[in-house]
C-alpha cells in the first residue's frame, strides 16, 4: 500500500486523451451583431450630415441677415446724408489719418482735416495723433459727407456738424479771439473762439486783410499758433465759408497820420498855391485818367488835386482810391489816392451825396484798367 502510494503521478504527456481532464468550455460570447453595427454607423453618418446641413443653414441665414442689415444701414446713412442730419457716434479707434466711428453695423471714417478745431482749444500745437488717441471711447457729432455703397466708403465730417450748430452765431462785424491754423501764400486760416472757450469754426484771413502794410508773404506776418483778434467781413452760408480781417480792426495808418504827414493849415486849400504838388513828387501814374473819367459822371462838376506826401511804409504797390469819411464841405468831397508810399489828395465838387460819390468812384474804377 505504501509503495503504491509512493508512485509518482503519471505525467500529463502519458495521459491518453481520454484520461485527460475535460477542458473547460470556451468562454461563451454572443455572436457579433454586424447588422447593428452597420445601423449605428449609418445613423452616426446621417447625424453628421444633418449637423453639417444645420450648420450650413445657420451660416447662410446669418450671412443673409448680415447682408440685409448692411443694406438697411446703407439706406439709412444715405437718408441721413440727404437730410443733413447731425449724428452722435462713438469713436472706436484712431489712426494716423483720422478717426474710425461706429454707425450701426458699419464703420466710417473722419479724416483729420474734417475734425472740429475744438479739439485744439487746450493746446493748439499738440500733435494731431495725440489728440485723436484721446478721443477713442468718446462720442463726436458729425454729418455724412460720402456714402458710397459700391466702394464701401463711408466718410463723416465733424466740421460740417460744427458749422450747422454754430454758424448762426457768426455775424458780419462780429469780433473774435482766434488761433492761427494753416498759413498759405494767399492767406491764413484762423480758428474762432466761442463763448464756451472752444474753437468751433474756422475762417480765412485773405492776404489783403492781414495788415495795412504791404504783405508779400503771409508767413512774414502770421505763424501757426499765433493768438490774433479778427473781425468777420463775410459769411457764405452756401459754401460754409467765413471771411475774416485783421487789418480792419486797426486804424488805417494813412487816415490816422494824414494830418501829420501833410498838415492842412487854415490858409491852405485846393486853390492855394502852397497846396500844389511838391516838385519832387510826381502825380500817381493813372490818376490823371481816373480824374478825367470822374468828370464824365453825372453830378460831378469839378476834380482838383490837393496835397501830396510820402508815407513811412509801403501799403500797396497798386493804385488805390479811398473816399475820406470826413463830411463834405461846400459840396466838396475828398478822395485819397495812394500807391507805394505816395499819397495824393483829390477834391470832388459834386451834387451827389456820399453814397452817390462812392458808386461813381466804383463805376470809374471798373472802367479804367
From TrEMBL:
Disordered as annotated region, ranges: 1-31
Single GO molecular function: nucleic acid binding
Pfam families recorded: S1
Residue ranges annotated for the S1 motif domain, each copy included: 84-159, 173-247
Domain of life according to the entry: Eukaryota
Chain intervals with Low complexity compositional bias: 1-21
Gene3D superfamilies (UniProt xref): Nucleic acid-binding proteins (2.40.50.140)
InterPro entries to which the protein is assigned, alphabetical: NA-bd_OB-fold (IPR012340), Ribosomal_protein_S1 (IPR052757), S1_domain (IPR003029)
Protein name (database record): S1 motif domain-containing protein
UniProt organism field: Triticum aestivum
Species classification: Eukaryota, Viridiplantae, Streptophyta, Embryophyta, Tracheophyta
Amino acid at each position: 500500500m505504501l509503495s503504491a502510494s509512493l508512485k509518482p503521478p503519471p505525467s500529463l504527456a502519458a495521459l491518453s486523451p481520454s484520461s485527460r481532464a475535460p477542458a473547460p468550455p470556451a468562454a461563451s460570447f454572443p455572436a457579433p451583431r454586424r447588422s447593428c453595427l452597420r445601423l449605428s454607423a449609418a445613423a452616426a453618418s446621417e447625424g453628421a450630415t444633418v449637423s453639417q446641413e444645420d450648420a450650413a443653414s445657420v451660416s447662410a441665414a446669418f450671412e443673409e441677415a448680415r447682408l440685409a442689415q448692411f443694406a438697411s444701414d446703407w439706406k439709412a446713412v444715405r437718408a441721413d446724408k440727404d437730410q443733413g442730419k447731425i449724428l452722435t457716434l462713438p469713436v472706436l479707434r484712431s489712426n494716423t489719418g483720422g478717426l474710425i466711428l461706429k454707425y450701426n453695423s458699419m464703420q466710417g471714417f473722419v479724416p483729420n482735416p474734417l475734425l472740429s478745431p475744438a479739439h485744439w482749444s487746450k493746446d493748439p500745437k499738440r500733435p494731431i495723433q495725440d489728440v485723436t488717441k484721446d478721443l477713442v471711447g468718446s462720442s463726436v457729432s458729425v454729418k455724412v459727407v460720402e456714402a458710397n455703397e459700391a466702394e464701401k466708403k463711408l466718410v463723416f465730417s465733424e466740421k460740417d456738424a460744427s458749422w450747422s450748430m454754430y454758424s448762426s452765431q457768426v455775424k458780419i462785424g462780429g469780433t473774435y479771439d482766434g488761433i492761427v491754423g494753416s498759413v498759405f501764400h494767399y492767406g491764413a486760416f484762423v480758428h474762432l473762439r466761442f463763448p464756451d472757450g472752444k474753437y468751433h469754426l474756422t475762417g480765412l484771413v485773405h492776404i489783403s486783410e492781414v495788415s495795412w502794410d504791404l504783405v508779400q508773404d503771409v508767413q512774414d506776418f502770421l505763424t501757426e499758433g499765433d493768438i490774433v483778434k479778427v473781425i468777420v467781413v463775410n459769411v457764405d452760408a452756401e459754401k460754409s465759408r467765413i471771411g475774416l480781417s485783421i487789418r480792419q480792426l486797426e486804424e488805417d495808418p494813412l487816415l490816422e497820420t494824414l494830418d501829420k504827414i501833410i498838415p492842412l493849415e487854415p490858409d491852405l486849400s485846393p486853390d492855394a498855391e502852397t497846396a500844389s504838388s511838391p516838385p519832387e513828387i510826381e502825380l500817381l501814374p493813372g490818376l490823371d485818367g481816373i480824374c478825367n473819367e470822374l468828370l464824365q459822371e453825372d453830378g460831378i462838376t469839378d476834380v482838383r488835386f490837393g496835397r501830396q506826401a510820402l508815407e513811412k511804409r509801403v501799403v500797396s504797390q497798386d493804385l488805390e482810391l479811398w473816399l475820406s469819411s470826413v463830411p463834405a464841405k461846400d459840396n466838396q468831397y475828398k478822395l485819397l489816392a495812394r500807391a507805394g508810399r505816395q499819397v495824393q489828395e483829390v477834391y470832388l465838387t459834386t451834387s451827389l451825396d456820399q453814397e452817390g460819390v462812392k458808386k461813381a468812384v466804383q463805376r470809374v474804377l471798373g472802367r479804367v484798367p
